[in-house]
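Example 390.
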Amino acid sequence: MPIKNRLSEMHAEITAWRRDLHENPELMYDVHRTAATVAARLREFGCDEVVEGVGRTGVVGVIKGRTDTRGHVVGLRADMDALPILEATGLPYASKTPGKMHACGHDGHTAMLLGAAKYLAETRNFDGSVAVVFQPAEEGGAGGEAMVKDGLIPRFGIKEIYGMHNSPGLPVGHFSIRPGPFYAATDNFTLHLSGKGGHAAYPHRTIDTTVMASQTVMTLQTIVARSIDPLESVVVSVTSLRTESEAWNVIPERVEIRGTVRTFDATMRKVAEERLKTIVTSTAQAFGGTVEIEWKPGYPSMVNAERETGFAVEVAAKISGKAAVDTQCPAIMGGEDFAYMLQACPGAYIQVGNGNTAEVHHPEYNFDDEAIPFGASYWAELVETRMPAA
Ligand code: NI
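Predicted structure in complex with nickel (II) ion:
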């Protein structure tokens, strides 16, 4: 069974919603126009319940099936926020706000889930309930966590939850997914190194923070090389190294180093953090300096549940055919805050093809509207397959 006919009919309408969102991007939790638009549409579709302000600016719509013999609730989640990027697509519906842009396709995610909600509210061809979940602040604001902390899962009785993201490079109409760890835990660190500044001609009278920093950066490379099981995947990247001096003849007193640590496994996450702290502290000590470490835990690893991944594969294959579903795609070193929802409830996250476009977070990226019928049909079919009409 390919794309749902009704969703094909709605393609132009959903595309118009998507382009309206694209023109009006909003950041983090300040998605007031977007959330209000979503809530208004859900009410217009005749959702049984529409709740705003879940996790600050999140929106949840409840659609009841024709029957409800088991009290089952399936959650479907989309993200609503944009990025602080100056758009360079030159599209007629490009962002009207310079410096804000839907460069990750969350406009497409929101529009596709709205399309599915409209279809499901019209047809109600299932036994149970659906909670359509629209979250703010996916891009670094942990909006998913905010909604979970606000009781999302018990409040709406969600028993299983699904997420979706578009994927540039994957052909339109294709899906990719994997069971188990899918996206990495993303922890950041800032190191404040202190020594003793002075004249560059007399290094013996200083405690040279640039040498201390260089040694620190190099030794951090041994975490992955020497402390992590070679069969595990871990990344330690230093991304910023700043001294307070721009002169040729001054040894700076302070240096700041920033970077990120990516892991899939909770034990490896702990090992990487502990090794980093030990290396940084003892390196500073060896040079006679000091260091202050800021460790900033980010999103946890996003882990797809085995059983629900199986359901997602089955549904994606119904839409696009088995050959168009990659069931063992490589894990991704980026982060995704749907991780918090998957910690609270079993579920699965799938990628839908966006074709040969610029990468996400690029100023020339655009969501491909041709992906709409596939994504929206996947949502609708997921509900009808998981909770077949009695
Ligand atoms: Ni995204």
